UniProtKB/TrEMBL annotation:
Belongs to the glucose-6-phosphate dehydrogenase family. It comes from Szabonella alba. Residues 9-182 form the Glucose-6-phosphate dehydrogenase NAD-binding domain. This is Glucose-6-phosphate 1-dehydrogenase. Pathway: Carbohydrate degradation; pentose phosphate pathway; D-ribulose 5-phosphate from D-glucose 6-phosphate (oxidative stage): step 1/3.
Length: 478
């Protein structure tokens, strides 16, 4: 379904995110017929460039980052025609009247702040000062949204000076992933799971986001952040919220975000013994974390595992184990919900018994897998075995499942439609930092050092203990 025609200004339009995600995403939506041709997409950045230069940059980025079988030369040419460029001084006056002239006066106006957060205030002020934005305009901001509670509050306050909460779209691209949204459909459109979705029946939950890439090339940024700030405070927190939240009364932005906020507020502080941090070592001809960070004494973690408890009626007694890291064995993200033992076993075959596990695969090979017990086929008596009810979206949904839109495509279209459900509200971000800050302060005060782990492994050995201690084990990363 096409969206209304819009004017979209991408501040930081020549940057990495614009090239990798925003422009390719917009092209794919244009290809899908979702973007009306009287829309305007305007790149704005410091670089001195004309429309033709920006169009060349965009074309090259699309060819590089969109699959070759999705490149249609005629459609690409028509898309490129929608693009123009303004060289702008975010902190001065240069370029603003030119920008105003380039806007097509579509009613839907969105401004993507793909720039350093320190410029948010300057941009917001000038957009209003030059009469380019009004009370219907939308702004899009990216993580990192602050590096602690104080800075997140400050950013919220800066934006609130010029924009109402209903105009601010804070992106967490995990919320745009197809399977992440599917989590809500699975939970709330089926009667099957929800009655079991509580500590009485769920033994524990594991959330894994494993990556094979290191931080080479972005070590300077990453070293000031670390896995806790880069992945846990935002992406993993969002996954945890979608698993743990109460059913919202309606699939509506504030109803959903109210429920997520309640989960974050119910998180217990994390004990030092429930945290394992790691740094990848050098290996396979590649440098280690400290080489990439450019600091031989860095204590920033490229891996973290945590045991998180939620103090509410539904989840008390069901720990959530979270882990994420760089340079691990495989790129895989999944959520695994492990159910408890049946109250009584009528079978003698205790050995064959395994817990039911519902695995939701976020990437790659998006899908779901429910591990169930059955009788082992054959005449050997009542022996038990576990089999997967395996649903790969690519298989059950055919082509549609194979061509799952990128998170950014979905989210940018939601901005244009004015739907904030998949964006973080200011209070949510602040609550997430309020939980994160003491954890980081704790290890800084104690002077904890991250453990080294081999590249291509599953992370530091100590992380195994985090679960062994509780009589549980991590699922294999593969
Ligand atoms: C980003 C982090 O937000 O998410 C990166 O800054 C990380 O460090 C990336 O690699 C992971 O995203 P995805 O979509 O590849 O799982």
């Amino acid at each position: 379904i096409p969206v209304d025609p819009f004017d979209l200004v991408i501040f930081g339009g020549t940057g990495d995110l614009a090239k990798r995600k925003i422009l390719p995403g917009l092209y794919r939506r244009f290809l899908a017929g979702q973007i009306p041709s009287d829309s305007a997409i305007i790149g704005a950045a410091r670089a001195d460039m004309d429309d033709a230069g920006f169009r060349d940059l965009a074309r090259a980025a699309i060819v590089e980052f969109v699959a070759a079988d999705r490149i249609d030369d005629t459609v690409l040419a028509a898309f490129i025609e929608r693009l123009s460029y303004v060289s702008i001084d975010a902190q001065g006056s240069g370029g603003w009247s030119a920008l105003k002239k380039k806007m097509r006066k579509n009613t839907v106006r969105a401004f993507y702040f793909s720039v350093a957060p320190s410029l948010f205030g300057d941009l917001a002020e000038r957009l209003h000062g030059h009469g380019i934005a009004d009370e219907d305009s939308r702004i899009v901001v990216e993580k990192p949204f602050g590096r602690d509670l104080a800075s997140a509050r400050e950013l919220n306050a800066v934006l609130a000076r010029h924009f109402a909460e209903g105009q601010i779209y804070r992106i967490d691209h995990y919320l745009g992933k197809e399977t992440v949204q599917n989590l809500m459909a699975v939970r709330f459109a089926n009667i099957l799971f929800e009655p079991l979705w509580k500590s009485e029946y769920v033994d524990h939950v594991q959330i894994t986001v494993a990556e094979t890439v290191g931080v080479d090339g972005r070590g300077a940024y990453y070293d000031k952040s670390g896995a806790m700030r880069d992945m846990v405070q935002n992406h993993m927190m969002q996954l945890l919220c979608l698993i743990a939240m109460e059913p919202p009364y309606h699939f509506d932005p504030d109803a959903v975000r109210d429920e997520k906020l309640k989960v974050i507020r119910a998180l217990d502080p994390v004990l030092p013994e429930d945290i394992v941090r790691g740094q990848y070592l050098a290996g396979s001809g590649q440098g280690g974390y400290r080489d990439h960070a450019g600091d031989a004494a860095s204590r920033t973690e490229s891996y973290i595992a945590l045991k998180v408890n939620i103090s509410n009626w539904r989840w008390k007694g069901t720990p959530f184990y979270l882990r994420t890291g760089k340079r691990l064995r495989a790129r895989t993200s999944e959520i695994a919900i492990t159910f408890r033992e049946p109250p009584h076993s009528i079978f003698d075959d205790a050995e064959g018994w395994r817990e039911n596990v519902l695995v939701i695969r976020l990437q790659p090979n998006e899908g779901m897998n429910l591990m169930v017990m059955i009788k082992e086929p054959g005449p050997g008596g009542m022996r038990l075995t576990q089999v997967p009810l395996d649903m790969s979206f690519a298989t059950v949904l055919g082509e549609e499942g194979e061509d799952i839109p990128d998170a950014y495509e979905r989210l940018i279209m939601d901005v244009i439609r004015g739907n904030q459900t998949l964006f973080m509200r200011g209070d949510e971000v602040e609550a997430a930092w309020a939980w994160t800050d003491p954890i980081i302060e704790g290890w800084e005060k104690r002077g904890d050092r991250p453990r080294g782990y081999d590249p291509g492994s599953s992370g530091p050995e100590d992380a195994l203990m985090l679960m062994h201690r509780d009589g549980r084990r991590w699922r294999e990363i593969r």
